[in-house]
Specification:
Elements lengths: L3 E4 L1 H8 L5 H12 L3 E5 H13 L3 H13 L1 E3 L3 H16 L12 H12 L2 E4 L11 E3 L5
Parallel strand pairs: 1-2, 1-4, 2-3, 4-5
Helix pairs in contact: 1-3, 1-4, 3-4, 5-6
């Protein structure tokens, strides 16, 4: 059975570096080789890319672009953004705000992208996402 796995910014950053983290790179390519769909969500690309641009990290930007050609890239859609707004509001109502009230909540957007794709979020911060989407520590996804 094919699984859909969506990368959070941390996992994506560890493989977008010109010298990727070997443990994370091995994990990723094993998933791909087994037939799993590994997704780069646009919100994670945005969060990572803005920091790479700020830091003048041209090699990392090139690597990030290469990964977008090798993996499945999931752009933001109106439907995803509407779901993210629902998630954000529900988290606030449950007393679980994620940052300032006027801040764009990348975690809510990533959770909405995972929800839309029927994907599990591969992350090292499960608690950031587990309120609305299936999230597992990267090492738990084999």
């Amino acid at each position: 059975m094919t699984r859909c796995i969506i990368l959070d910014t941390g996992a994506l950053g560890k493989i977008a570096h010109p010298r990727p983290n070997p443990e994370v790179a091995d994990w990723l390519w094993k998933l791909v080789a087994s037939g799993d769909l590994v997704i780069i969500p646009e919100i994670a690309d945005y969060e990572l890319r803005r920091n790479m641009l700020l830091g003048g990290m041209a090699s990392s930007l090139n690597r990030l672009d290469e990964l977008k050609d090798l993996l499945l890239y999931m752009p933001l859609t109106t439907r995803v953004m509407l779901k993210a707004a629902e998630f954000w509001a529900a988290a606030r109502k449950q007393g679980k705000p994620r940052g300032a009230a006027d801040a764009l909540d990348g975690d809510a957007i990533l959770a909405a992208q995972a929800y839309e794709a029927g994907a599990v979020i591969a992350t090292e911060n499960v608690s950031h996402f587990s309120w609305f989407a299936e999230a597992k520590h990267r090492r738990e996804i084999e």
